[in-house]
Amino acid sequence: MKKIVILTGAGMSAESGLQTFRDANGLWEGHDVMEVASPEGWQNNKELVLDFYNQRRKQLLEVKPNKAHDLLVDFEKNYFVQIITQNVDDLHERAGSSNVLHLHGELLKVRSIADSSLVYEWKKDLLIGDVCENGNQLRPNIVWFGEAVPMLDKAITITKTADILVIIGTSMQVYPAASLVHYIKSNTPIYFIDPKPSIEKNSYPNLTIISEKASMGVKKLVKILKP
Length: 227
Description:
By secondary structure, the protein is an alpha/beta fold. The chain has 2 domains: 1-18 and 66-104 and 148-227, Rossmann fold, CATH 3.40.50.1220; 19-62 and 113-142, SIR2/SIRT2 'Small Domain' (2-Layer Sandwich), CATH 3.30.1600. The chain contains 8 helices and 11 strands. The chain has helices at 10-13, 33-36, 39-44, 46-62, 67-74, 91-95, 152-160, 214-224, and strands at residues 3-8, 27-28, 31-32, 80-85, 100-102, 105-112, 119-121, 138-142, 164-168, 190-193, 207-210. The strands form 3 sheets. Strands 5-4-1-9-10-11 form a 6-stranded parallel β-sheet, with helices on both faces. The longest helix has 17 residues, at 46-62.
């Protein structure tokens, strides 16, 4: 059974109503990114950071997977599918995908500030005073700017095994996630789905660009890859 590795970004979840945090002027929901997504922002104003992610968590719980999420699940009938996502939502899992790796953390999980291995499922508001079993404050289980990406090595290992690489809804401008494409075998077919593709047709060997939103693009991909 051939292996498809799928890299997904914000465009994957946009049709569910989850827009990318960052807008055209670089703000995240009206905040400077460093205020709400950096260790320095956390130290400066924990309440602001917690409120920011509490709002994102509430929004996530109100939306559902879209057609693109559902179609990716169907690939598992004929391929071994591994999804590597930059998204912090759980929409791939809710749609039914079996193998999902979150590069940048998960919005519905929190972790201890003192021990990153103490991770808890979390669907309510996270407040100052919410602590782990050892009495240390909990924080969002999100990889902030300036922090290491603990799942990167695993993502690289997975990408190296791809027979087919699919990229959906990401600009391929955010590192280290964008570097993953460099780890595939030289003859691996690449399918890039995005309404405004940021890479040229001749950027990579065996590259097919599908200039569509995620749902329509994946629908076309299903026809292309049908056994």
